[in-house]
Amino acid sequence: MKIPNQAQLLRIFIGENDRSNGRPLYEAIVLKAREMHLAGATVFRGAMGFGHSSRLHTSKILRLSEDLPLVIEIVDSEEKIAAFLPMLERIMASGLVTLEKVQVLQYGTDSE
Fold it and tell me: Which Gene3D superfamilies does the protein's record reference (predicted)?
């Protein structure tokens, strides 16, 4: 698979407890991205954060939260990201989605 040098970064901010049809939302998003043959997706777990409710989510021992912030990043061509967005809109009840242009310097290895 090849990604154009000028691509897009889709960044999705959700909570660890967010669900889609009974499964973790982050899992549903990553599996759908894979099914749609996007170049890749990565889920990052945040140690601390807050969103539109201003409720603090933290991994500190004294304020243990089971709903830590998650960020999912997906990089691919503008066309493939655009095709993915309607599906994302259908399964997300809340969260923040951003999109930005990125320059891809390397993807994979020569042997792939």
Answer: 3.30.70.120
CA atoms within 13 A on the CB side of 84: 30
Write the DSSP symbol of residue 3. Answer: -
Range of the domain at 28: 6-103
How far apart CA 71 and CA 73 sit, in angstroms, is: 6
- We report the CATH number of the domain holding residue 84 as 3.30.70.120
Kindly report the pTM of this predicted structure: 0.85
Residues in a beta bridge with 9? 75, 100
- Reduced to 3 states, what is the DSSP secondary structure of residue 80? helix
